[in-house]
Amino acid sequence: MVEASGMMYTNTNTTLVPAFNPSIQRNHLRLCQLPLLRRHHVQFSLSATASETSAFMETIPWGCENDSLENSSSLLKWLSQSGLPSQKMAIDKVDVGERGLVALKNIRKGEKLLFVPPSLVITPDSEWSCPEAGEVLKKNSVPDWPLLATYLISEASLKESSKWFSYISALPRQPYSLLYWSQSELDRYLKASQIRERAIERTNNVVGTYNDMRLRIFSKYPDFFPEEVFNIKSFKWSFGILFSRMVRLPSMDGKVALVPWADMLNHNCEVETFLDYDKSSKGIVFTTDRPYLPGEQVFISYGNKSNGELLLSYGFVPKEGTNPSDSVELPLSLKKSDECYEEKLELLRKYGLSRSQCFPLRITGWPLELMAYAYLAVSPSSMRGKFEEMAATASNETTSNKDLRYPEIEEQALQFILDSCESSISKYNKFLQASGSLDLDVTSPKQLNRRLFLKQLAVDLCTSERRILFRAQYILRRRLRDMKTGELKALTIFNGFRKFFK
Ligand SMILES: C[S@@+](CC[C@H](N)C(=O)[O-])C[C@H]1O[C@@H](n2cnc3c(N)ncnc32)[C@H](O)[C@@H]1O
């Protein structure tokens, strides 16, 4: 489970993990990070050509529609024949998540469910139907994510000859994920949210990973990795599947895995139960944290993720106000006009930060790192001696001075955060006001459906992010007002004393 400690997250034993981006931000502010690639191989620029970009929109020749039950009975049949014990749940159409697992019988709170045997789990150690292809990747020390992405494509392309045919046939042909939003869709709908940058960065990384694999491996072994199969379109699909379905199993030393059947479970923000390997039953299980009646959909948690992160990896946004882990990224920047600009920037860089930095705001508050960054941004040259501890605290690279406070500049620091909040709020206001009139130009019903779908997701995301900003704005304004009235009171008392002594 992801542990939330204050505003920071300890990356312990998360479940469904989309933690892929080597990010511009600091690791400690991320919910969960996995190294994807050896960095020197990544080409971060978006090197896909226009035709490749449009190819992203095409579908691949395997899998099924997102809401289809057409392949689910053969999936269950294959799983049962391959060792999955009899289940208390069945795949069905559901209100939340289109397709999910529904209780067939009464399920008690605290009951263990699933018991998927390790032989039915895809991991980086799984045997390849084409062992030579697997050998090539191992010889090249390809990391887990691109290895699994390539494995999935290789097995999918073998159709019935692959052990995983029934599983892959029941996977969505186009997983919901921001990977499938074009650049212009991201610009159009997510301009106000920082998630837009993360989506672009993620797409760049997937394209970079593909280019790297093609250059280093696929082009050298075209018999094992023909371009008709191992192309950016199939890579995008396999990464979309990994982002939206892969789990990390804490009791298997954090091994990453695709768990057929278990990956039909949808997420609920109020549920706190995660998939894991159960040593006693030797299967992947989860323990229910509430009872279910027959016919009710059963949920797990994909981790304590914000609405933006859920949209980024899984392509959905929970209903407003239902996600206790929701947060919004607040961008803060050093001012170029600052007389100590160069000095401060150098210190920020020393601690791995940059001139512009995002910090998570939650409905319950903000992290100390954000406050430290604000202190640094507003501190005058007379406080030069404190710059380093501010930068270190902003980067979370210090254990001491957890109670960082500088009363002499607190008001300016809070005002600085408030200004950034208000500038973000005005971006959200602009988008949400304009959203009503967006897309009136579309005539094709298919395009209209897609646009309405994306717009609704964006409106839901922006509304929830703006709500957190409104809350922060309220708290900041109140604190500033209290500080000012406090100062006024102190001044009145001081003047009173002066008069008295006169
Ligand atoms: C691990 S799969 C779960 C099974 C999936 N519904 C299916 O039919 O294949 C994750 C995907 O399920 C959907 N999903 C999961 N939880 C959801 C929720 N609370 N609301 C909407 N969609 C959800 C999203 O499309 C997500 O990408």
From TrEMBL:
Positions contributing to S-adenosyl-L-methionine binding = R245, N266, H267
The entry marks the following residues as binding substrate, namely R245, D263, Y277, Y302, Y314
GO BP annotations of the record are: methylation
Superkingdom of origin organism: Eukaryota
Entries under PROSITE patterns matching the protein:
SET (PS50280)
**UniProt cross-references to InterPro entries, sorted A to Z:** Rubisco_LSMT_MeTrfase_plant, Rubisco_LSMT_subst-bd, Rubisco_LSMT_subst-bd_sf, SET_dom, SET_dom_sf, SET_RBCMT, SETD3_SETD6_MTase
Indicate yes or no for the key word Cell wall biogenesis/degradation. Answer: no
Q: What is an example of a GO molecular function annotated in this UniProt entry?
A: protein-lysine N-methyltransferase activity
Recorded coiled-coil stretches? none
- State the CDD domains in the record: SET_RBCMT
Residue intervals of the SET domain: 87-303
Keyword entries, A-Z: Methyltransferase, S-adenosyl-L-methionine, Transferase
Pfam families, per the entry: Rubis-subs-bind, SET
Name by which UniProt lists this protein: SET domain-containing protein
Q: Name the lineage.
A: Eukaryota, Viridiplantae, Streptophyta, Embryophyta, Tracheophyta
